[in-house]
Amino acid sequence: MTDQIVEKVAVQTEESRNQGRRAFLKGSAAVAGGVMFTKAASAAEGAGYDAKKAVAPYAGKEEITTVLQDGAARKTLGFGVRKYPYGMPSPFEKEVQRRTLEWLTPDSMASITMTPLHQLHGIITPNGLHFERFHGGVPTINPDEHRLVIHGLVERPLIFTMDDLKRFPSVSRIHFVECPANGAMEWKGVQLNSVQWTHGMMSCVEYTGVRLSDLLKEAGIKPEGKWIIPEGADAAGMARSIPLDLAMDDCFIAYAQNGEALRREQGYPIRLVVPGCEANMWVKYLRRIQVHDVPMQHREETSKYTELMPDGTAQRFSWYMEANSVITYPSPDFKMEGPGKYFLRGLAWSGRGKVAHVDISVDGGKTWKEAHFTSPVLDKAWTRFELEWDWDGSEAFLMSRVTDETGYVQPPMPQMRKLEGTNNVYHRTAMVTWRVHAWEDGKNGGLIENVQY
Amino acid sequence: MTDQIVEKVAVQTEESRNQGRRAFLKGSAAVAGGVMFTKAASAAEGAGYDAKKAVAPYAGKEEITTVLQDGAARKTLGFGVRKYPYGMPSPFEKEVQRRTLEWLTPDSMASITMTPLHQLHGIITPNGLHFERFHGGVPTINPDEHRLVIHGLVERPLIFTMDDLKRFPSVSRIHFVECPANGAMEWKGVQLNSVQWTHGMMSCVEYTGVRLSDLLKEAGIKPEGKWIIPEGADAAGMARSIPLDLAMDDCFIAYAQNGEALRREQGYPIRLVVPGCEANMWVKYLRRIQVHDVPMQHREETSKYTELMPDGTAQRFSWYMEANSVITYPSPDFKMEGPGKYFLRGLAWSGRGKVAHVDISVDGGKTWKEAHFTSPVLDKAWTRFELEWDWDGSEAFLMSRVTDETGYVQPPMPQMRKLEGTNNVYHRTAMVTWRVHAWEDGKNGGLIENVQY
User: In angstroms, how far is the first alpha carbon of chain A from the final one?
Assistant: First the structure.
């Protein structure tokens, strides 16, 4: 399928931060959207009117009169009910979609698409835009024929139909789900000029399902049972090893996302939900859970999802996604249209619990201001933040830094790189920086790009 | 468009509750789903195993072995990423859709479709299933050309583009939205045998937008300005009168629902959000807000959305949706498959704030037990409740009763009817009753139907 968006790829920063943090935009400089000012801004002269406000839309009596005329939509009937028994977005939103990087994985059956974070609002990801990650393509499973087996070191091996599962007590919670490879391409330096590419391997939805602990108690864990091995019914046979303590905590088996049945791309008819932990543990198309005395050493926890350290050893079982944040607006898909008031916006989240606070810097980390939250603050879920910013048009370096309720502070990239080197792929949760080019900078004025230091 | 589901219409209850509450199912007795027991329930004999548990899925070693074989999905690759850049539900879920009653309104351009509440989970309604209500069809508006005007008794008439609106501080909140005609068909007696028909004129999503108070302050309300008149750009020119105090409270102008742009059916590109109040005030395709000294007396607040009282007068300006609740499972779309343990589930909500508690009766209101909540409890949003029920197979009458944080208790239907008669159409928020037919009742055993008393 042809992707209509030009991939914007920035070269790596050539010099260190202290040497000026210059960076170059290479390839297409086209931007997908613009931060627009109303042209008539300076015409505003009402009593007490603050011209520095975010908008200045008064445009004189004539234009008001024009705008108040009945438009085309008033003069024709629209379409009727049930044109879309299951609705779809407006055709004007057709560019808001999941996208992949063609070069990222060699095969569409074992690849990923990213959620367009820069186009989203609030903390809920609509089901149609939830990121995808498959290891063997997406099966279309008949829920009437699907079974979940719990076996191994249990008192009573159990077989569940979908109806059986729905008859257990239910739980509905809003959680983010994040691939540990989110940001993988940024370990060695900046590569990608869109928050959809740097952070889009995650989504946040409301899941409904059955507590895993209820099912495991029903089966009765034998004393020697210390690990669970969930396994998917798809061609990949995805499996992971999860310690029993974690499994008995707040995990559940979801049959719904955002109110309706799971989507196929997210594991229809059932997937495991492991709140706060990396997404590959959230096994999709879940067909069995084996209770075991030792971890499984499955291929997806040896060949993949391990972290190659500078000394050549590999970190394994890095379950939790540490606190992370990103400014989504403005970000490289946008272009500043002039100095003025902006509201910096973004997402913060933590696999360890709730977001406690978020600080924002516009000068590359020299000074910080606390942002406020514009959404509910929920456990292991996205939190939206916002901060007023009067941009004077000079070069700026936008950064966000989250602190979670455990006190963990999101590190800068040099600190993360110093500890883990640059050969690692997973759990790159350090801060990112958006460089805003000075307004007077010729044709690049107002451009926003991903830089590192 | 052909609706594949047979409409199930029950005749009105013929006798009063005290005379036995008999009711008859008329027309098709087909049910859309069933509450299934695993057939092998009685085979369970593990140590400590409680056969009365909701499920009893142990089915012997042979079946476990069979189920553990690799199934069809394991043996073939599924489809790859970006088959659906904007995703859709599994084809197995195609019956989960918005539906209308053909006889309810004479024209599809001024009609309604209902959300399939019995098929939903959690508190978020997916955008594709959000109920629809149009007065003049759905326009497809180009957001680049759309304008919002604030004028009338203001210091500074203002014109906003969509980009202008997005540059204001944002707010993201989860709220229910409900047509005051929800339940309208039930005033005189029971008519409809599905919770999609009795309560489906509502949904609950996360909205993101701009506080209305910020925009009104920007315009500067003149001292004589006491009402706002929001008006839509569609063929219906929907308008309502809203007192300034209410407008300055927690209203906002939404450009997003569940993360993405509003759907056309819900007002793309912008709609007013009036939390807790009847949905017709949430003007869609919002094109202007006139500040006025008196209410407008628009046709939609004189011919419609007024409540005809027994004495012939009409109640007007019934803004708030009072506390309400309904059991969605089991409900008339399901059929009990035998005595055993069930978890009664439903939705509660209040236009006045948070849900405080929900009681459930299985004996038609003689005795009550408190349900627990299985979702976050948010302001003016749906709350999910659940209660364990050991059904002995005898006739039962299921009811739920919500109390909100103001202390308001949901009334029984006779009380509401005594006050408001039966000619009213709107704000029927009284309790409903689902009759469960006794298990031994021949072919009707386990059927569930909507009854009144």
Answer: 36
Share of chain A above pLDDT 90, in %: 77
Give the distance from residue B19's alpha carbon to the nearest chain A alpha carbon, in angstroms: 34
Q: Answer for the pair B305, B298: CB distance below 8 angstroms, yes or no.
A: no
Provide the edge-to-edge strand list for the sheet that holds B242-243.
B158-160, B148-152, B286-292, B227-232, B242-243
Give me chain A's average pLDDT, please: 87
Alpha carbon separation from B304 to A104, B180, B387, B416, B429 (Å, rounded): 57, 10, 38, 20, 18
Residue A84 in tokens: 């879309």
Check if A76 contacts B (Cβ < 8 Å). yes
CB atoms within 10 A of CB B343: 18
Asked if A85 lies within 8 A of B97 by C-beta distance, the reply is yes
Separation CA B64–CA A157 (nearest Å):
8
**Strands of B433-436's sheet, edge to edge?**
B369-370, B355-361, B396-404, B433-436, B448-451
Q: What is the dihedral of CA B71, B76, B79, B81, to 10 degrees?
A: 100
Residues of B in contact with A258 (CB under 8 A): 122, 124-126, 258
- List % helix, strand, coil for chain A (3-state, nearest 5): 15, 30, 55
Q: Do A1 and B168 touch (CB under 8 A)?
A: no
Nearest CA to A426 out of A316, A326, A344 is that of: A316
H/E element holding A195?
helix A195-199
B46/A73 CB distance under 8 A: no
Given its phi and psi angles, is residue B435 left (phi above 0), alpha (psi -120 to 50 degrees) or beta? beta
Full DSSP string of A289-343: EEEESS----GGGTTSS-EE-TTS-EE----BPPPEEEEEES-TT-B--SSEEEE
User: Residue B85 and residue A97: Cβ atoms within 8 Å?
Assistant: yes
Mutate to test the interface with A, among B107, B121, B271, B385 (most CBs of A within 10 A): B121
d(CA B356, CA B376): 12
Minimum Cα–Cα distance from A61: chain B residue: B157
Residue A207: closest CA among A250, A258, A168, A165: A258
Instruction: Kindly report, residue by residue over A225-238, the tens digit of the pLDDT.
Output: 999 999 999 999 99
According to DSSP, residue A214 is labeled H
Q: What part of A 224-283 touches B (C-beta under 8 Å)?
A: 233-235, 237, 255-256, 258-261, 263-265, 268-269
Pick the more confident residue, A360 or B69. A360
Distance CA A86, CA A146 (A): 25
Option in A80, A155, A161 nearest B111 (CB) = A80
The candidate with the shortest Cα–Cα distance to A357, out of A331, A332, A387, A330, is: A387
In chain B, residues with a C-beta closer than 8 Å to the C-beta of A221 are none
Of A181 and A49, more confident: A181
Judged by CB atoms closer than 8 Å, whether chains meet at A83 and B138 is answered as: yes
Give A412-428 pLDDT, tens digit per residue. Answer: 999 999 999 999 999 99
Tell me the residues of chain A between 306 and 365 that have a Cβ less than 8 Å away from chain B.
341-343, 345
Query: Exposed, middle or buried: residue A379 (CB in 10 Å: 0-12, 13-18, 19+)?
Result: middle
Main-chain phi, psi angles of B64, to 5 degrees: -55, -45
User: DSSP string covering A113-152, please?
Assistant: EB--GGG--SSPPPGGG--EE-SS-B----TTT--EEEEE
Distance of alpha carbon A348 from alpha carbon A362, whole angstroms: 17
| Beta strand pairing call for B369-370 and B372-373 | unpaired
Domains and CATH numbers, chain A: 124-190+198-315 (3.90.420.10)
Phi then psi for A214, rounded to 5 degrees? -60, -40
pLDDT at B71 over 50: yes
